[in-house]
Structures are given as C-alpha cells and as structure tokens.
Amino acid sequence: MKFRIGPNGVHLFDRLSGLNILVDELRPKEAIWSTAPRQVSIALTNVCDLHCAYCYAPKHKASLHTDQVLGWLKELDTEGCLGIGFGGGEPTLHPDFVNICKRAAGETQLAVTFTTHGHRLTPQLAERLKGSIHFVRISVDGVGRTYEEQRGKQFASLLRGIESIATLAPFGINVVVNERTVAELDALSELAQEVGASELLLLPQQATSTVASMDGVVSRALQGWVSNYVGKVRLAVSEAGASGLPTCDPLPDERGLQAYAHIDASGMLRASSYSPACVKIEDAGALSALKRLRNTFEIKRETQS
Ligand code: SF4
C-alpha cells in the first residue's frame, strides 16, 4: 500500500483493489506534506482519429517521449502522487503506448489509468496491456444514434471495444453532459450496469472554440437526474461543472495543485487541461515546474489582493 501525507491526514492507497483509507486522526505539519499532486493526467499525444465537436484537446501535432514521461512519473511517485491518467488526443495512438504503461506500472507504485474512445481496444491490445493497467475510462456520449452523431463512429464498434476493456481492468464510463446526452443518462446508467462498469463519470460540457458550455436548462436537468438516481453504478462528477450537485469530498483541504495537475502533449504543466496558465517542464523536472507554477499563482493572487 502506498501512502501520502496531506492536510487532511495520512492517505493510504492500494492500486490493485482501488482501496483508499484516510487516517484523519493524524494531522501532519505542512512541512512534511507530500509535494506532488495526488493525481496527474498526462496527454501522451494530441493525435486522435475522431473529430468530436466538443473536443478540448489542442490540435497541433505534439507527442511526449517515453523516457521523458518515465522520468516525470518517477519524480511524482517519490513525492507522493498516487495515480496517473494517460489521455490525449487518443493515448492508444501514441506509438509507444504499451511500453509506457508497462514501464509506468513496473517502475513506479503509481496507479496507471487511461482514458480512451475505445475503438482501438482490440482483444490483442487488451492482452498486451494486461497487468499494467489499474483502471480504464471510456468515453460514451449517449447511446445508439446519439453516440454515432456525437462521435462519428459506430456504436456497435464501441461495444466491441468495451468488451475487450472489460477483460483488461476495472473500468468506468465517462459522459460529456450536454443538451443531447442529458436525455440519455438513464440509458447510459443501464448500459454501465449491463457491461460491468464500476463508475459513471459525468463531465458537464465545457466551452471550446466550437461549442458552448452546458447551459442552465441542461444543468437543472442534470441536477434533477442526479437527485433521483437509484442506479447501482457509482456516480462521479468532474470538478468543473459540479456546482449544484451533491458531492462528497473526503479531502476538502487538498486543493488546486495539491490535488491535481495536468501535463499536456507539449510538456507544459497546467492546473487542468482547460487552464491557460502553464509552465514548461524543463530538464530540472516535473516537481521544479510544479514549484514555478505554484509561484505564478501566488504572484497572481498577491497582485489581485
Ligand atoms: S475522442 Fe476524445 S480526443 Fe478524440 S476528438 Fe473526441 S474528444 Fe477529442
């Protein structure tokens, strides 16, 4: 079991079972808190073979190198990060994806997860990844025709991908909530239960250059759906767009860059994939970049006050 020290206590985590234990009787001094964010997402590549309108991934060509990624992971692991989530673009399109996952699982204690559109997850790829992945997130925006119109891919092909993923690791379903998909949340929760997903993650749509963020009507419909939810699959919601929803945060004092950071496919460290503020990860490493990004936010706060 790995442990992490933070403002809410000592956090124990087992990447194989997903078990989290928070020893909150202990309140360690700030000087010994873990310095890495609890979770870090890494866009391995900007490349994707789909063209979703609400995609926020940058469209310029960029990919990270295996050794560069592994170096950052080892630093983050040592400094108390618990898990890493590979994304993109479509992470399975990174030419060294399998090797990166194997090395991340073998050379660190981090939980290794990735988010995928699911269409490239053949039984062969799932077999090669077995043992190196602790959780998979699959993007499913609506069912049947809605899905096909949103993602431009056959729903049947997605279901085949989900079958392969189910043989690989525990998995969850991600849904971008917008005016189309909000009406299909019942169907999505039924699907999640049928295919054996352990989580349904709601991602209220954020504005991109082509779409607006979720509006008030959709937001109220989502709130109504969540408060009446009686499904068996656990619900989760992204922090962006969670306002108004009943959420439970066991680590309320672990905020901002203590809780989460994102590294994009150009090697820039950000507070989230949407955040415009960023710093380049130089040869000094990810933790040094994290310090610079924290300083940037401090200076901004001071000048605003
Ligand atoms: S599958 Fe994901 S990365 Fe690819 S275009 Fe759609 S939202 Fe963007």
From TrEMBL:
<keyword id="KW-0411">Iron-sulfur</keyword>
<dbReference type="GO" id="GO:0046872">
    <property type="term" value="F:metal ion binding"/>
</dbReference>
<dbReference type="GO" id="GO:0051536">
    <property type="term" value="F:iron-sulfur cluster binding"/>
</dbReference>
<feature type="domain" description="Radical SAM core">
    <location>
        <begin position="34"/>
        <end position="249"/>
    </location>
</feature>
<dbReference type="InterPro" id="IPR007197">
    <property type="entry name" value="rSAM"/>
</dbReference>
<protein>
    <submittedName>
        <fullName>Radical SAM protein</fullName>
    </submittedName>
</protein>
<keyword id="KW-0949">S-adenosyl-L-methionine</keyword>
<dbReference type="GO" id="GO:0003824">
    <property type="term" value="F:catalytic activity"/>
</dbReference>
<dbReference type="InterPro" id="IPR013785">
    <property type="entry name" value="Aldolase_TIM"/>
</dbReference>
<keyword id="KW-0408">Iron</keyword>
<dbReference type="InterPro" id="IPR058240">
    <property type="entry name" value="rSAM_sf"/>
</dbReference>
<dbReference type="InterPro" id="IPR050377">
    <property type="entry name" value="Radical_SAM_PqqE_MftC-like"/>
</dbReference>
<dbReference type="Pfam" id="PF04055">
    <property type="entry name" value="Radical_SAM"/>
</dbReference>
<keyword id="KW-0479">Metal-binding</keyword>
